[in-house]
UniProtKB/TrEMBL annotation:
It comes from Notothenia coriiceps (black rockcod). It holds the Pfam family zf-HC5HC2H_2. This is Protein AF-10-like. Residues 213-239 are annotated as: Disordered. It is found in: Nucleus. It comes from the Eukaryota. One of its GO terms (cellular component) is nucleus. GO terms for molecular function: histone binding; nucleosome binding; zinc ion binding. Keywords: Metal-binding, Nucleus, Phosphoprotein, Repeat, Zinc, Zinc-finger. SMART domains: PHD.
Length: 263
């Protein structure tokens, strides 16, 4: 299922930046918007809530018919499909080079992880991840009483120099702590995250935001996480088609966005 098709047909004025999806956001970048050249694609697997941008999941060609994420496509027993880098089961997964699975978002934010093929973003290559990352415990899991999960998988660390807080990528994603920051040149995006403390300091610090990638691009490598102030987006929950054109007046937009009001 692809977002945007009906919108394109319904509105010739439809353009890259003025469409707002009511349906849950991308499992990788959390952005809920879709673009003509980078649509949000929803998995048609039974009971699967995966939604991803074409570019966030390495979908070379979006099929016109049903689309299935790799997990649903694999027919592997759901219980066996678990991310090697974190304790969370849902989300957009890909095969790893050792026959396991990992979230695309975990692969992006653990610095040593690579994609064997960068256009298809698979398989995910874990061999360069230092053992140290697997030995760290996630402070977010511990904070939330999931001690048994805290040592599962690998951890990223707070991007603030000198801070030693470690956490799972997906725990940080759900807490809204992941960022994309501008690297040395325009094409260079650094995927990083902060502990809750430094993330809140970051938001308070004046003048930081200009360092973040200001533009939410529809194409990789910027995945749309640039705005650290954005509240965490809940995990994607595909709903029936519903498109909102931001060209509509603000009042109608907010009306349509109000919970309980069906378009
Ligand atoms: Zn995305
Ligand atoms: Zn699926
Ligand atoms: Zn993961
Ligand atoms: Zn965790
Ligand atoms: Zn920190």
């Amino acid at each position: 299922m692809v977002s945007g098709e009906r919108c394109l047909a319904a509105d010739d004025e439809w353009s890259t930046n003025n469409m707002k999806e009511m349906i849950g956001g991308c499992c990788v970048c959390s952005d809920e918007r879709g673009w003509a050249e980078n649509p949000l694609v929803y998995c048609d697997g039974h009971g699967c809530n995966v939604a991803v941008h074409q570019a966030c999941y390495g979908i070379v060609q979006v099929p016109t018919g049903p689309w299935f994420c790799r997990k649903c496509e694999s027919q592997e027993r759901a219980a066996r499909v678990r991310c090697e880098l974190c304790p969370h089961k849902d989300g957009a997964l890909k095969r790893t080079d050792n026959g396991g699975w990992a979230h695309v978002v975990c692969a992006l934010y653990i610095p040593e992880v690579e994609f064997a093929n960068v256009s298809t973003m698979e398989p995910i290559v874990l061999q360069s991840v230092p053992h140290d990352r697997y030995n760290k415990t996630c402070y977010i899991c511990e904070d939330q009483g999931r001690e048994s999960k805290a040592a599962t998988g690998a951890c990223m660390t707070c991007n603030k120099h000198g801070c030693r807080q470690a956490f799972h990528v997906t725990c940080a994603q759900f807490a809204g702590l992941l960022c994309e920051e501008q690297g040395s040149d325009a094409d260079n995006v650094k995927y990083c995250g902060y502990c809750k403390y430094h993330h809140s300091k970051l938001l308070l610090a004046e003048g930081h935001h200009p360092q973040l990638t200001a533009q939410k691009s529809s194409a990789r490598p910027s995945l749309g996480l640039s705005d650290c102030s954005r509240p965490p987006t809940p995990p994607a929950q595909p709903l029936p088609f519903d498109h909102i054109n931001q060209a509509q007046s603000d009042s109608s937009l907010s009306l349509l966005l109000s919970p309980g009001i069906k378009h």
